[in-house]
Each structure stands twice: as C-alpha cells, then as structure tokens.
Amino acid sequence: MRVQLIRVLLMGLFSALALPIIDAVVLGGAIIESVHAGSAKIGGRRMGCRAARVRLSTKMPGLGAAVPGTIFLNPRLLRRYPSVTRRMIFLHECGHQYVGSSETAADCWAVKAAKRQGWLTERGIRTVCRSFAGSRGSGPHPPGPARCSAMLNCYRTTKRPNSRSRSRKR
Ligand SMILES: [Zn+2]
Q1: Rg (the chain; Cα; Å)
Q2: Residue 29 belongs to a domain
Q3: Which residues crowd ion ligand 1, with CB under 5 Å?
Q4: Does residue 167 sit within a domain?
Q5: In the chain, N or C terminus with fewer CB closer than 10 Å?
Q6: Residue 30: what pLDDT?
Q7: Measuring CA to CA, which residue among 4, 1, 8, 38 is closest to residue 105?
C-alpha cells in the first residue's frame, strides 16, 4: 500500500484550501476517541502535544499534517491503521512543531517521545514500518526501508525513563 504518511503544509496554503475541519468524535469513532485542544485519545491513550492544538479533517489528502501551532489528523484514512501507527502519526506531527519540516527528525522525535512514554517497543516500530514498507519515498520522505531503519536507530539510542532513574541511583 502506498502511503503518504505525513505532509507539512504552510499555514497559508492550508487556509487557502479551506479544508473542512471537524472537532467531533463522530468520524474518529474508535480511531480517535476524543479530541481536545491539545490532545487526542488514540487507542485508549491520551496523546498530548503541548505545542499544538489538534484538528480532525476527513478531506485532507494525507493521514496527518502539521502547521505551526496546529496538528491535523484524518480519521477516515487513519482507521486503516493499528493504534500504534495512529499514535506515531500523532507524535510525528507533534514533532514537526519542535524540529521543523525535516521528516527524518520528526520521525526520530516521535520515536523518542513514545519510548519515554513507555509504550513503544521495537515490535511496535516494525508495525509502523509496515505502513510505509513499500514506499519508495515521496517529496521530503525517504524511502520506507531507510525511514524504518532510522526510526529503529533513534529508538535504540533513547533511554527509557526507568533506565535513566536507575542509573541515577547508582
Ligand atoms: Zn512529517
């Protein structure tokens, strides 16, 4: 399946497209259980992004997008993916708020955040990787396999929160 995981649009372009934005739980269904100003409940977990508010839109072309101060998610497309992938897309978009437009840096930011939150495993990353495994890359996105190995690399070089506190005790 060819997936354009994420795209970053300039605020001006986005408002020019006048995309319909919904705030409701309805279209998200079990995919995104609820949306509040800065967070979305995905797979039973409240995902927060301090730097941005969250908006849902079923008319946008990709799964998610980020503009400064706002994250957009497409519940219609996201429902095809497991919750670990949906959460990682959320964090990827949040990552753009901090690292700018680099896709690789946003992926890495997302992986680090998820590992620190304690729910992402290497197996989870491989699940996420399957969603773009066949991608040769598009625009700013590296090809799927390269993207996947960069994410695993980020994961392996990030400490879990408990391993950090353990080392402090020594
Ligand atoms: Zn991105």
Answers
A1: 16
A2: yes
A3: 6, 103, 106
A4: no
A5: C
A6: 63
A7: 8
